[in-house]
Write a structure and sequence with these properties.
Bound molecules: 2-acetamido-2-deoxy-beta-D-glucopyranose
Shape: globular
Domain Protein kinase: 590-865
Structural class: alpha/beta
Membrane topology: Single-pass type I membrane protein
Helix content: 10-25%
Number of strands: 44
GO molecular function, one term: protein serine/threonine kinase activity
CATH class of the domain at 569-865: Mainly Alpha
Subcellular location: Membrane
GO cellular component, one term: membrane
CATH superfamily of the domain at 569-865: Transferase(Phosphotransferase) domain 1
CATH topology of the domain at 569-865: Transferase(Phosphotransferase), domain 1
CATH architecture of the domain at 569-865: Orthogonal Bundle
Distance between the termini: 99 Å
Strand content: 15-25%
Number of helices: 17
Length: 874
């Protein structure tokens, strides 16, 4: 009895508690459901937010603490739109709300100020508009605030400064305007990451308070309408790793202490401003030299105090300003420096010999300054150097023998200097694409071994004192530009040069003779062609070809045998859409008859489904040996990329060592086919539509889809056309499935369409968006000219890039580039597109537009057709 009553009493005590916790739980669920009810969810990403899944802590994006209470809502990248309801702030323990990369389009909700427990608010990548409300300052515990990439306008409210605990503040990529109030940053002593970049409507000076943020690691203020001087206080940012102030209107000289205490600085970008005066030479002086015990070396005077001060520095970019005086020479010997860009300033100084320094330099651009002295032997010894551009300076003396020894060197521009002596025979730079030595005082012959550099495309040796003949061996090269005007060359011009290039590239050489030139070669048989040579080449080509054929046959026989075996392997399949075909039937259909093409990664089959539709099956040999779980995850990542201009991934099958990717296949086949068929309906309007659609698909992969993807294999055979000629990109992101090493291996096989590959790819660099832009530019050229990028069977003919570049250099050549089968009425549009294509295929990656720019340009071309300028620049 006594025991019974005590149990009863306990129950009496507990019951209200139990009920209370039930009530909280209920109401949290209700709050979430109310939140959901105002959201549109077209992809049904949060369909599990429903009463039949009782445990709301298990709903998509929800994290709970125990006892159950929602602490975090993470719904990024789910294509959500609609309203962000006020009710969400009633969740008592909500500390993280992440709705990044959705389609919310509303003004910033005032009610967020009620979410007092929030630590992290991420609304980046939506379409929020209106001003940032004062009330944002009422979130006392907020540590991370990310509103970047929206359409927020107006001034940044000073009340933001009340968020004293903020560690990350990202407001980049909006339309903020007005001035940056100093009150905003005065109290944010915890701030480590500040991004206000890409807000072009600011008109503000840099608040000196930013320089007092003692924990700042990353400061991104590029392209934000900032003017005035960089405050002295900025030299106090000792914890800084990345400083980007580029593309503003900053002026004056920079604080003398900048860089001094910045021992962690990795990247400094001050480019494209109006900064002037001396560059603080202390910025990195000495550095490695002292570390390596070489301080008695070339450093004159006392060793500066700032020694070892920025040994982490990798990128130093100050181009496009008005800096003058000595270039900080200690920079060259920093252990990690890889990119130095200082072009278009008034720097003087020399490029020192680096003794005992293991340099990581990759890219040096110091064009258009007052650098002087000799080109040091160092340049040739740095094995990582792929670009050395020092035109328009005062370099003199001879070019060192080893100037072109870096195995990855691809661009050399030393034009407009005072270099003399003979041009050394290039020895090892098999990746050299562009060599410009124009307007110097070089003498002697054109080096014959240029002809052994397999990818050399642009040679400019004009305005020197070169003599002798033009080496006939150069015809081995497939050149797009060969300018030797204004030299002392003599003898007969090899015929492929007189026919391939404009006469202006030969003028100013009184001794040259040949057809089309002022003097014909009297006495000499015109165009003495070394016939034996030609015969020799023919023999070599034939033997190579036959060897290749034997290899290919052997390869396919072996493959066929292994295919037979593999067919009996166990295949596992995942279909994202119902295909209406049995797996076994699918496998049966993958015979040689269904192969429509072979790419570097394997064959592509096209199969008709029982319902009449076609699918393309790409057979990948997963040579990379990635674990199959990883491959599946990657394929799902690819499959989630959805855009009207991406070919839908319908499913995949995999077994040991092979993957079958199943794509939708358009009625009109690929753009490559369409170019070859060239039906009458393939008019400019259609081609423009294909260009625009493909550009939009690519821009989506680059920028809109998260994770950002690179296509890496843009070519006309990977652009599929539906019955209305709507283009769909296929074959993207294969590197993710087979691994980088195998990807590279495949791309270096014979089956790769090499002319789509950007020249810098050969320098074993990381894949970039700009490489995709290059490949897209090649597709544009195909659309404009109607020529396939590479003529499949003739190794002698030029690819479309070189062909076009040669033509546009000729007077009137530009018009001859346009596909003659198209009506004249579209000429202006086609010329505009040609200009765009030439920019996309620029040798220099930074001159290429982004895909977003390309989309805009293509749209504009169609809207306003004005006479465009066609640049023939490289
Ligand atoms: C995203 O939502 C829009 C409507 O807001 C819809 O048209 C589109 O198909 C959706 N995309 C995906 C990938 O679900
Ligand atoms: C889940 O709930 C919805 C309504 O919220 C209902 O239409 C659906 O039939 C339920 N499904 C199951 C499996 O109970
Ligand atoms: C939550 O989901 C996981 C996996 O999705 C499942 O294993 C677990 O049983 C679920 N818990 C509840 C309480 O439903
Ligand atoms: C916000 O989300 C985006 C998209 O996932 C992410 O890139 C960004 O780093 C997040 N911001 C913060 C401050 O974590
Ligand atoms: C910064 O903090 C100081 C002292 O705590 C205070 O007086 C000042 O008003 C604060 N400024 C802002 C903008 O909150
Ligand atoms: C840059 O600043 C100068 C004066 O400092 C001003 O005259 C000029 O208009 C500004 N340019 C831009 C693009 O803001
Ligand atoms: C950087 O330079 C400053 C000023 O010369 C000096 O006080 C500081 O000790 C240097 N830092 C290092 C890590 O040597
Ligand atoms: C140089 O870079 C490497 C790799 O990025 C890094 O491990 C190393 O710490 C850097 N050296 C310095 C001095 O920062
Ligand atoms: C070389 O430099 C000159 C002068 O800066 C420039 O006009 C030219 O376009 C450059 N050529 C190449 C191929 O980089
Ligand atoms: C070029 O070199 C020759 C001698 O090699 C010299 O006479 C001439 O002045 C030099 N020209 C220039 C412009 O430096």
């Amino acid at each position: 009895m006594a025991a019974g009553s005590s149990v009863c009493r306990l129950l009496h005590l507990l019951l209200p508690l139990l009920l209370l916790s039930c009530a909280i739980a209920e109401s949290e669920k209700d709050i979430l459901l109310a939140f959901k009810s105002s959201i549109q969810d077209p992809s049904s990403s949060i369909s599990d937010w429903s009463l039949n899944f009782t445990d709301y802590c298990n709903w998509t994006g929800i994290t709970c603490s125990s006892p159950p209470s929602v602490t975090s809502i993470n719904l990024q990248n789910l294509n959500l739109s609609g309203d962000i309801a006020a009710s969400i702030c009633q969740l008592p323990s909500l500390s993280e709300l992440n709705l990044a990369n959705n389609h919310f389009s509303q003004s910033i909700p005032l009610h967020f100020s009620q979410c007092t427990s929030l630590l992290s608010l991420n609304l980046s990548g939506n379409a929020l508009w209106g001003t940032l409300p004062e009330q944002i300052g009422h979130l006392p515990s907020l540590k991370d605030l990310d509103l970047s990439n929206n359409h927020i306008e107006g001034q940044i409210p000073p009340s933001l400064g009340m968020l004293k605990g903020l560690r990350v503040l990202k407001l980049g990529g909006n339309f903020f305007s007005g001035t940056l109030h100093s009150a905003v940053f005065g109290n944010m002593s915890e701030l480590g990451f500040l991004d206000l970049s890409k807000n072009p409507y600011f008109t503000s000076k840099l608040p000196m308070e930013i320089g007092e943020l003692g924990k700042l690691r990353v400061l991104l203020l590029q392209n934000s309408g900032l003017y005035g001087e960089i405050p002295e206080s900025f030299s106090g940012l000792h914890t800084l790793e990345v400083l980007d102030l580029s593309q503003n209107n900053l002026s004056g000289s920079i604080p003398s202490g900048l860089g001094l205490g910045m021992t962690k600085l990795v990247s400094l970008d001050l480019s494209q401003n109006k900064l002037s005066g001396l560059f603080p030479s202390a910025i990195c002086d000495g550095g490695a030299l002292v570390e390596l015990g070489l301080n008695e070396n070339s450093l004159a005077g006392p060793v500066p105090e700032s020694i070892l001060n920025c040994t982490s520095l990798k990128r130093f970019q100050v181009q496009g300003n008005m800096f003058s005086g000595q270039f900080p020479s200690g920079l060259w010997s920093l252990p990690n420096i890889s990119i130095v860009r200082a072009e278009n300033n008034q720097f003087s100084g020399e490029f020192p010999e680096l003794v005992g320094v293991l340099s990581q330099l990759e890219q040096v651009q110091i064009d258009n300054n007052y650098f002087s002295g000799r080109i040091p032997r160092t340049v040739g010894r740095i094995r990582t150097m792929y670009r050395f551009s020092a035109s328009l300076n005062r370099f003199n003396g001879n070019l060192p023998e080893n100037f072109c020894d870096s195995p990855v060197m691809s661009i050399i521009n030393l034009s407009h200097n005072s270099l003399s002596g003979s041009i050394p025979e290039p020895r090892y730079c098999k990746k050299l694409v562009s060599l410009s030595l124009a307007d110097n005082n070089f003498t002697g012959n054109i080096p014959t071994s240029l002809s052994q550099l397999p990818v050399l495309t642009y040679i400019d040796l004009s305005s020197n004192n070169l003599s002798g003949e033009i080496p006939p061996e150069l015809q081995n090269l497939k050149l797009a530009l060969f300018n030797v005007s204004y030299n002392q060359l003599s003898g007969s011009v090899p015929p492929y040069i007189t026919t391939g290039f404009p006469a202006s590239f030969l003028q100013g050489n009184p001794g040259l003779c040949g057809p089309g030139l002022p003097s014909t070669c009297n006495g000499l048989p015109e165009g003495r062609e070394p016939k034996s040579n030609r015969l020799f080449i023919v023999v070599i080509v034939m033997s190579l070809t036959s060897g290749f054929v034997v290899l290919v046959v052997a390869y396919f026989m072996i493959r066929r045998m292994s295919q037979r075996e593999s067919r009996s392997n166990l295949w596992k399949s995942v279909f994202f859409y119902p295909l209406g075909i049995l797996e076994d039937d699918l496998m049966m259909a993958l015979d040689d008859k269904s192969i429509i093409g072979k790419g570097p990664f394997g064959a592509v089959h096209v199969i008709q489904l029982p319902g009449g539709n076609f699918i393309a099956v790409k057979r990948l040999r997963s040579l990379g040996g990635l674990p199959s779980r990883r491959i599946k995850a990657e394929i799902k990542t690819l499959a989630k990329a959805r855009h009207k201009n991406l070919s839908k991934l319908l499913g995949f099958c995999y077994s040991d060592g092979e993957i079958l990717l199943i794509h939708e296949f358009g009625k009109k086949g690929s753009l490559g086919d369409a170019l070859i068929r060239s039906e009458a309906s393939f008019n400019w309007r259609v081609r423009w539509q294909i260009a625009l659609g493909a550009a939009q698909g690519l821009a989506y992969l680059h920028k809109d889809y998260v994770p950002h993807l690179l296509h890496r294999n843009v070519k006309s055979n990977n652009i599929l056309l539906d019955e209305y000629f709507e283009p769909k990109l296929a074959g993207y992101g294969l590197d993710r499935l087979i691994g980088e090493a195998s990807y590279q291996a495949c791309m270096s096989t014979e089956l790769c369409s090499c002319c789509y590959v950007a020249p810098e790819n050969s320098c074993c660099m990381k894949a970039t968006e700009q490489m995709d832009v290059y490949s897209f530019g090649v597709v544009l050229l195909e659309l404009i000219t109607g020529r396939p990028a590479e003529q499949p069977d003739s190794r002698q003919s030029l690819d479309v890039v070189k062909w076009v570049r040669r033509k546009v250099n000729m007077t009137d050549g530009t018009l001859h580039v346009l596909d003659p089968r198209l009506l004249n009425s579209s000429q202006q549009e086609m010329l505009g597109t040609l200009d765009l294509a030439l920019r996309c295929t620029s040798v220099m990656p930074e001159k290429r537009p982004t895909m977003a720019d390309v989309v805009r340009s293509l749209q504009c071309l169609h809207d306003i057709v004005e006479p465009p300028r066609v640049s023939s620049g490289v």
